[in-house]
Design brief:
The complex is a heterotrimer of chains A (about 300), B (about 325) and C (about 625). With about 300 residues, chain A is mostly helical. Chain A is built from 13 helices and no strands. Helix content of chain A is about 65%, strand content about 0%. The chains are: A mainly alpha (about 300), B mainly alpha (about 325), C alpha/beta (about 625).
Chain lengths: ~300, ~325, ~625
C-alpha cells in the first residue's frame, strides 16, 4: 500500500513535535560563547570609535611634538609623520570608517536582497537578466570597481559608500536568491497563491520571514567586508583625505616609520583587526544558530 | 565504454561565450566610466593645469572625437588589436608599461595559489576527518579569525611580526634592482606571497571542511563504510571526488577575489605589479592604463571561472555522460 | 524439537542518543534463523532504522551503544576490533539502504561499486559481479558495468543495491525500507527479487518497514516496534491473526484494506519523541486498555506462544471493540444535475513536453472522486490545474458551468473561495513563521477581505478538523505531522469551500494517523456536503474513501467509473496490473462481516461515535 511517492517526506515526519516554539535567531546565537566574545570585541572598538572623539587629549590635527616621536613624547603613543598626537588621531579616526561601512552594507544588502527575492520569485527572463547582470558585475573585484569610479569622479565619500554597496549587491543577490528559491518552492507559497493573496504580500509575509536568518548572516558577513574595504580604500588614499584623522589613512601615512614609531600603525591595525574579528564571530554565531543543532535522532 | 563528451563540450562552449559576453560588457562599462563622463574627460583629467593645447592633444589621444558609438568602436578596435594606447604619465605605450607588471603579478599570484590551494584542501579535509577534536576546533577558530581580517591588515601584522617587530627575517618592502626580475631575490617575495596565502586560504579551508563533512555524512559514504571498505578507500575513492566539484567553484571565486587583494598587498609592499600600477594610474588619472588594467583583471576573472567550470564538469559524471 | 542455530541474536540491546543519553532503542531482543525473513514494523521515531544499523555495528552520529549484545553468525559484535568489523560488514552482514539513489555514489561506475565489496583476483571478482547482476535480472555486460547511478531507473538502482548486498554471500541481510519511494509495480519486482535471493542464499534477513502490508506479504516473522522497544514479535500468521498487543491490534486495523470490506481506523494521538518517553508503557497514553499500572512501570516481554512474545500487562485482555464506520453513502443523482467541476479535453504540460492529454472528467456535488496513478502519471498536475496553480493548460475547466481561469490570480474571489487545495506534505504547506490562527485566517481574508469574527471562524475550523481550541496559538513546529495536516484541512475549510482537492494528503504521515485523517474527511464530506477530489497512488485508500475513481496512466485517464465497479471488474490492463502489484492486506477470520454492519460516526482523534462495535480478537 504505502509505497509513498515522496521518500523524504516519510522521514521528515520523524521530527518529533517540539513542545516549545523555537526561540529567535539572536537569542539562540547568544548561547554560543563565540557570539558573546564577538559582541564584546566589536562593542569595544565601536566604543572607541564613537566615544573616542569626545575624549581626545589634543586636537587630532595640531602639531604637538617632533614627527615620529617615540611613545611618551607628545602623547602616550608618540607622534605621527607630521608630529600630531597618535592617541588623539586614533581616538578620532574610527567614527567615519564605521559609518561609511555601515551605510555601504545597508545599501548593498538592502538592494541585493530585493534583487535576489524578486529574481527568485518572478523566475523567467527577469531572473535570467538580473542574475546574468550580476555575473558580469562579479568580473570586477570590489576594490577594482571602486578604484575605477573613484579615479574618475574623485575621492568623494558618497561615492565610496555607493561603490561599497554596489560591489556587495550582486554577491548578496546571489545568496539571497538561493535562499529565497528554496522558500518559493515550498508549498505554503503555493497555498497562498491558490487563494489569491497578492504577490507583494506573499513576498513580505511568506518569503522574507523565512529567509531572515540568511539576511542576518549576510549582513554580518558584508559588514565585515565593508569595514575592510573602506579601511583599505582609505589606506590607498581614496577615502578620507588628509589632514582628517582616519585609521586607514594613519596606516598609510606612518608605515614608513614602523621601526621608529610603530604605535601610529599598530593601534589602527589592531582596532580594525579586532573589529572585523568581532563582527565575523557574531556572524558565525548567527549562521550556526540559523542551522540549529538537533541531536541525531532517527527513526 | 566510450564516454560521450557532447554534453560537456556544449556546456563549455556556452560558458566560453558567456565569458566573451562578460568581457564585452566590461569593456562597455570601462569605456563609459572613463570616457563618457558628464563633461569633458580631458578637462576632468587635466584639471586646473589644462591649457587649450594640452586639452586638444589629450582629446586626440583618448579618441574623444566623433559621436559616442564612434568613439567606442574606435577604442574597441584598438583594444582588440592590443593597441592599448599611450600612457599619459610616462608617454610610453601602455602595453609596454603593463606587460612587465603583469608578469610580476602573475608570479606573485601563482606562487600564492600553488601554496594556498593544496594546503587549504589538505587542512580542510583533515579538519573534517578530525571533526570535533581539538585540532578541528583550533583550525576552526584560526580560520574564522584569519578570514575576518582585511588583507592589508594581514600584511601589516605580518610585517610587524616577521620584519620590523618581533623577528627581522624578511624585508618589509620590495626593492627592485634595475634589470633584475622579481624572482631573483626570493626573500623579498616571502611576505607578499605569505600575506596572500593567509588571506585566501581560510575560506577555502572552511568550505573544504564543510563540503567534506556533508559528503562524509551522505548515504553513499555510509553505504561504503557498511560495505566494509577500508577507511582510506572510503575517503579517497568515495568522498573526495564528490567534494572537489563544489570546492573548485569556491577556489575560483577566491582566486578572482585574490586579484582585489593583490592591489592592496602590492601597494603595501611596493611590489611592482598590476595592482601597484593601477593605484599609481588612478592617482595620476592615467586613463589609458586604468582602462587596460580593468580589462585585464576582468579577463583574468573570466579565465579562472572557466577553469573552475571545467573542473566541476569533469568531476560530475552526470554532466560528463550526458549526451 | 531441534531448531537451527540462529544467524542473528540480539540480546537486551540499548542504543542511546548523545549527549542526552535518552534511549532510542531499549531492552531489545530478537533472533533470526538462516533463510528466515524478519519484518520489523514501526512508525516514524520507533527506532527501527537505528536498530538496523546496529546490526552492522554502526551507530549514526549522535547515537551510541548503551548496553546489550548483538551477535551475527556466532560473532559477538561488541568484541570486534575495527579490522574485524570491516570484514564483518559486507562479508557477513550486508545492508540495503532505503534510498538507492542517495546510497550509490554518484561519481563511481556501477561496476566499481559492485566489485569493491569483494577481495581477490580481478577476473574472479568480475565474474561474480556479473553473476549476481544476472540473478537480480539486470544486464551483466560491460556497458552496464560502466554506467553511473544516474543513468539507471529507480527500480534498477534498487536492484543494484540488492546485488551489491548479495555479492559477498553474506549470512545476514539488513534492509531498511528498500521499496519506499518506488511505484507499486516496481515495488513488486523488488520484493520478488529480495524473496528469491534470500531463498537462493539461505540467508537470514531483517526487513525494516513502516508498511504492514508489505511486511505481511514478505516476512516469515514480524516484530512490531513502538517507541524503541519491540512490543510484539511472532510468526507472521500468528501476529496477524492473533495479535496480543493493543498497539499491534490497532495498527492492523489502521491499514487500509484493498477490498474495503474492513474499515480502516486510526489510532488517536501520536508516538512520544525519544526525549520525552513516558515512564511506564510507552503506548499507555494511546491505549484503550491502559490502567494506572501501565503508566508507572514498563511491562516485561512475556512469552504467549511458541516464539511469540508480547510486552504488555493486558496481553490476555481483548481490546474493546472499536466503533466501525458505515460504507460510503451512495448519493442518488438526478439525471438533469450538472457537474460542479467539469473538465473537458484538458491538455497540460511544461514548456516542451505534455504531461496530461485529453482529460475529461465530471465531478458532481457531494461525490468523492479519486485520481489514482503512479508517480509521473500527471495526477498532481491535474489537481494543480484545477486549483489554478499550474497555468500551462488548454481545454475546458468549469466550476458550475463558469470557465475557470488558468491562473488562480485571475479567478474571482468567489471561485477561489469555492475551490480549496490541501497539499501532500504538511511540513511544507504551513509557513513555520505563522501561528495556527494566522494560518487559518489567511485564506479567509484573501477571499473575503477583513473579517470581524475571525476568532469564531478559527474556532469553528479547528473544531471541524478535530483540533483543540488552544492549538490556535501554536506554531507549526509545535505540532505533530497529523496535527499539522489537520491544520491544513482546517485552513481549507475556513473559507466554507464546496470543492476540496486533497493531493496525497496522507502519504507523508504514519499509517495510524493516515486512517484518522481519512475518517475525518469522510465525516466532513457527509456533514458539509463537500465535493472531494482525492489524489493518491494508493488503491486501498481509494477503496476506503472514494465513490468514483479515475485511473491515470502517463497523462491519460484510462479508466473511470464507480469504485466498486472498477475494482470488481477492471477493464483496462493498467488498472489490472496496478491491482495485481498491490499487496492485498487481509486480516484473518470474522472481522470482515462486522465492518459491513458498522454505523456512522467519526473515529480516531475525533469524538467517539456510538453504535456498531467491532470485536478485535476472538478469544
Amino acid at each position: 500500500m504505502s509505497n509513498g511517492v515522496a521518500t523524504p517526506a516519510v522521514h521528515l515526519a520523524t521530527a518529533p513535535p517540539r513542545t516549545r516554539h523555537k526561540q529567535g535567531l539572536f537569542r539562540r546565537a547568544l548561547k554560543s560563547r563565540r557570539t558573546v566574545i564577538g559582541l564584546v570585541l566589536s562593542g569595544l572598538v565601536l566604543g572607541v570609535a564613537f566615544l573616542g572623539p569626545l575624549v581626545t587629549p589634543h586636537s587630532p590635527t595640531v602639531f604637538v611634538a617632533a614627527p615620529f616621536s617615540p611613545a611618551g613624547i607628545g602623547g602616550p603613543f608618540g607622534t605621527d609623520n607630521l608630529g600630531r598626537d597618535v592617541l588623539s588621531r586614533f581616538l578620532a579616526g574610527g567614527q567615519t570608517l564605521m559609518i561609511l561601512a555601515l551605510l555601504g552594507t545597508v545599501i548593498g544588502v538592502g538592494l541585493g536582497a530585493v534583487v535576489g527575492v524578486v529574481a527568485a520569485y518572478r523566475r523567467g527572463w527577469l531572473d535570467e537578466v538580473l542574475m546574468r547582470t550580476g555575473d558580469v558585475a562579479l568580473a570586477f573585484p570590489q576594490i577594482v570597481l571602486a578604484l575605477l569610479f573613484l579615479s574618475i569622479i574623485g575621492p568623494q565619500l558618497w561615492l565610496l559608500v555607493l561603490m561599497v554597496g554596489v560591489g556587495h549587491m550582486p554577491r548578496v543577490a546571489r545568496v539571497v536568491r538561493g535562499a529565497a528559491m528554496s522558500v518559493v518552492e515550498r508549498d505554503f507559497v503555493k497555498a497562498a497563491e491558490s487563494v489569491g493573496i497578492p504577490r507583494w504580500k506573499i513576498v513580505i509575509g511568506e518569503i522574507v520571514p523565512n529567509i531572515s536568518s540568511t539576511l542576518a548572516v549576510e549582513f554580518g558577513l558584508r559588514l565585515t567586508y565593508s569595514i575592510g574595504l573602506v579601511a583599505g580604500l582609505s589606506f590607498l588614499g581614496l577615502g578620507m583625505q588628509p589632514p582628517a584623522a582616519d585609521w586607514g589613512l594613519m596606516i598609510n601615512e606612518n608605515r614608513i616609520a614602523l621601526t621608529v614609531s610603530p604605535w601610529s600603525v599598530v593601534l589602527p591595525v589592531l582596532a580594525i583587526a579586532v573589529l572585523t574579528v568581532g563582527t565575523n564571530l557574531v556572524t558565525d554565531g548567527l549562521a550556526k544558530a540559523a542551522i540549529g543543532s538537533d541531536e541525531g535522532v532517527t527513526a | 565504454m566510450k564516454v560521450q563528451r557532447g554534453g560537456m563540450s556544449r556546456l563549455f562552449l556556452r560558458r566560453s561565450l558567456f565569458g566573451l559576453f562578460t568581457l564585452w560588457v566590461v569593456s562597455l562599462v570601462v569605456f563609459l566610466a572613463t570616457q563618457a563622463l558628464p563633461g569633458d574627460a580631458a578637462q576632468a583629467i587635466l584639471g586646473r593645469e589644462a591649457t587649450p593645447e594640452r586639452l586638444a592633444a589629450l582629446r586626440a589621444q583618448l579618441h574623444l572625437g566623433g559621436s559616442l558609438p564612434e568613439q567606442y568602436l574606435n577604442w574597441l578596435g584598438h583594444l582588440l588589436s592590443l593597441n592599448l594606447g599611450t600612457s599619459l604619465a610616462g608617454g610610453m605605450p601602455v602595453s609596454d608599461a603593463v606587460a612587465p607588471m603583469l608578469l610580476n603579478s602573475t608570479v606573485l599570484m601563482v606562487c600564492a595559489a600553488v601554496i594556498a590551494i593544496p594546503l587549504a584542501i589538505g587542512i580542510g579535509t583533515w579538519s573534517a576527518l578530525k571533526k570535533d577534536t581539538v585540532i578541528d576546533n583550533v583550525t576552526g577558530i584560526a580560520t574564522l579569525v584569519l578570514a575576518s581580517l582585511p588583507e592589508f591588515v594581514v600584511g601589516v601584522l605580518l610585517v610587524l611580526l616577521l620584519s620590523t617587530g618581533l623577528f627581522h627575517l624578511f624585508p618589509a618592502v620590495f626593492v627592485q634592482m634595475p634589470g633584475a626580475q622579481v624572482w631573483n631575490n626570493p626573500a623579498q617575495l616571502v611576505l607578499p606571497v605569505l600575506t596572500l596565502v593567509v588571506a585566501v586560504s581560510p575560506y577555502i579551508i572552511r568550505i573544504m571542511r564543510a563540503t567534506m563533512l556533508e559528503v562524509l555524512d551522505s548515504q553513499y559514504v555510509q553505504q561504503a563504510r557498511l560495505k566494509g571498505l577500508p577507511e582510506r578507500t572510503v575517503i579517497l575513492r568515495h568522498a573526495i571526488p564528490n567534494a572537489i566539484g563544489p570546492v573548485a567553484q569556491v577556489i575560483a571565486l577566491q582566486l578572482a577575489w585574490l586579484i582585489g587583494g593583490v592591489v592592496l598587498v602590492e601597494y603595501l609592499f611596493r611590489f611592482p605589479g598590476v595592482g601597484f600600477e593601477l593605484i599609481d594610474a588612478v592617482t595620476n588619472r592615467d586613463m589609458p592604463v586604468v582602462q587596460a588594467l580593468a580589462i585585464i583583471i576582468a579577463l583574468f576573472y573570466v579565465v579562472v571561472n572557466l577553469l573552475a567550470d571545467v573542473v566541476t564538469l569533469v568531476a560530475n559524471p552526470k554532466v560528463r555522460t550526458a549526451s | 524439537m531441534s531448531s537451527p542455530t540462529p544467524t542473528l541474536v540480539v540480546d537486551n540491546l540499548k542504543i542511546v542518543g548523545v549527549p542526552s543519553m535518552a534511549a532510542i532503542v531499549e531492552e531489545l531482543s530478537l533472533e533470526v534463523r538462516p533463510g528466515e525473513i524478519l519484518g520489523v514494523v514501526g512508525e516514524s521515531g520507533s527506532g527501527k532504522t537505528t536498530l538496523g544499523l546496529a546490526l552492522l555495528n554502526y551507530c549514526k552520529d549522535g547515537t551510541r551503544m548503551g548496553g546489550g549484545s548483538v551477535s551475527v553468525a556466532g560473532q559477538e559484535l561488541a568484541g570486534l576490533n575495527w579490522r574485524q568489523v570491516r570484514r564483518l560488514r559486507g562479508q557477513t552482514v550486508a545492508y540495503i539502504p532505503q534510498s538507492p539513489a542517495s546510497a550509490l555514489n554518484p561519481a563511481l561506475r556501477i561496476g566499481t561499486q559492485l566489485g569493491e565489496c569483494l577481495a581477490g583476483e580481478p577476473a574472479t571478482v568480475l565474474a561474480r559481479v556479473r553473476e549476481v547482476l544476472r540473478e537480480v535480472a539486470l544486464d551483466d555486460d560491460d556497458a552496464f558495468l560502466a554506467r553511473y547511478p544516474h543513468q539507471l531507473s529507480g527500480g534498477q538502482q534498487q536492484r543494484v543495491a540488492i546485488a551489491m548486498a548479495f555479492t559477498a554471500r553474506p549470512a545476514l541481510i539488513v534492509m531498511d525500507e528498500p521499496t519506499t519511494g518506488l511505484d507499486v509495480s516496481t515495488q513488486e519486482h523488488v520484493l520478488a527479487t529480495v524473496r528469491q535471493m534470500c531463498q537462493n542464499y539461505d540467508c537470514a534477513a531483517v526487513y525494516i518497514s513502516h508498511d504492514m502490508a508489505v511486511v505481511a506479504e514478505l516476512a516469515d516473522r514480524i516484530a512490531v516496534m513502538y517507541s524503541g522497544r519491540i512490543v510484539e514479535i511472532g510468526a507472521t500468521a500468528e501476529v496477524l491473526a492473533n495479535s496480543r498487543h493493543p498497539y499491534t491490534g490497532r495498527l492492523l486495523l489502521a491499514v487500509p484494506d484493498l477490498d474495503a470490506k474492513r474499515p480502516m481506523i486510526g489510532i488517536p494521538g501520536h508516538a512520544p519523541s525519544p526525549l520525552a518517553r513516558p515512564r511506564g508503557c510507552a503506548f499507555a497514553p494511546r491505549c484503550p486498555l491502559a490502567d494506572e499500572g501501565c503508566t508507572t512501570t514498563a511491562p516485561e516481554a512475556t512469552e504467549v506462544g511458541p516464539r511469540h512474545t508480547v510486552r504488555c500487562f493486558k496481553a490476555d485482555v481483548p481490546l474493546p471493540a472499536v466503533p466501525a464506520r458505515k460504507a460510503p453513502a451512495r448519493v442518488a443523482r438526478d439525471a438533469a444535475e450538472r457537474p460542479v467541476v467539469q473538465i473537458s479535453g484538458l491538455k497540460a504540460g511544461y514548456s516542451s513536453f505534455t504531461v496530461l492529454e485529453d482529460i475529461n472528467l465530471d465531478v458532481y456535488a457531494g461525490d468523492c472522486v479519486a485520481l489514482l496513478g503512479e508517480s509521473g502519471s500527471g495526477k498532481t498536475t491535474l489537481s494543480r490545474c484545477i486549483a489554478g496553480l499550474h497555468h500551462n493548460f488548454s481545454g475546458g475547466l468549469t466550476l458550475d458551468g463558469e470557465q475557470l481561469a488558468a491562473n488562480s490570480f485571475k479567478r474571482t474571489k468567489e471561485q477561489r473561495r469555492r475551490v480549496q487545495y490541501i497539499f501532500q506534505n504538511p511540513y511544507e504547506s504551513l509557513n513555520p513563521r505563522r501561528t495556527v490562527e494566522d494560518l487559518i485566517l489567511q485564506p479567509v481574508t484573501a477571499v473575503r477581505g477583513k473579517v470581524r469574527n475571525g476568532r469564531d471562524i478559527v474556532a469553528t475550523a479547528l473544531e471541524r478538523a478535530s483540533l483543540r481550541p488552544d492549538h490556535a496559538t501554536r506554531y507549526p513546529d509545535q505540532l505533530s505531522g497529523g496535527e499539522r495536516q489537520r491544520v491544513a484541512i482546517a485552513r481549507a475549510l475556513a473559507t466554507e469551500p464546496e470543492v476540496l482537492i486533497c493531493d496525497e494528503i496522507t502519504s507523508a504521515l504514519d499509517v495510524s494517523v493516515q486512517s484518522s485523517l481519512v475518517d475525518l474527511l469522510r465525516t466532513l464530506q457527509a456533514e458539509m456536503g463537500l465535493t472531494l477530489l482525492f489524489i493518491t497512488h494508493n488503491i486501498a485508500l481509494v477503496r476506503n474513501i472514494a465513490s468514483q475513481v479515475a485511473v491515470l496512466e502517463r497523462g491519460r485517464i484510462v479508466e473511470f467509473g464507480e469504485v466498486e465497479g472498477v475494482f470488481a471488474n477492471p477493464r483496462h490492463d493498467y488498472t489490472r496490473s496496478l491491482m495485481a502489484a498491490t499487496p492485498n492486506f487481509q486480516l484473518a477470520g470474522g472481522l470482515h462481516e462486522v465492518g459491513a454492519t458498522g454505523t456512522d460516526g467519526p473515529q480516531g482523534d475525533g469524538p467517539q461515535g456510538t453504535g456498531g462495535l467491532l470485536p478485535l480478537r476472538s478469544l
